[in-house]
Specification:
This protein is mostly helical and 70 residues long. The protein is built from 3 helices and no strands. Keywords: Membrane, Transmembrane, Transmembrane helix.
Length: 70
């Protein structure tokens, strides 16, 4: 039962992330939340979540460097 509820919320968050890619909204937050919930049960979700975290970290560092130059 707990696993099913987890999957329902994960799919809901991923669907909201896809929706917010089309309309303005916080799509990255919902993608990360959906992957986080799936990462409890699936190793492939852990890999995607790790990839997502590394990409966000590097993009934030890039933006920080650009803003520091001003």
């Amino acid at each position: 039962m707990k696993k099913m509820i987890n999957h329902v919320f994960a799919v809901m968050f991923l669907a909201l992330g896809l929706l917010f890619m089309v309309v303005p909204g916080p799509s990255l937050i919902f993608f990360i939340a959906g992957l986080l919930l799936l990462a409890f049960y699936y190793p492939w979700a852990r890999r995607y979540l790790s990839h997502f975290q590394k990409a966000l970290k590097s993009s934030c560092q890039f933006i920080d460097k650009k803003l520091a130059r001003r």
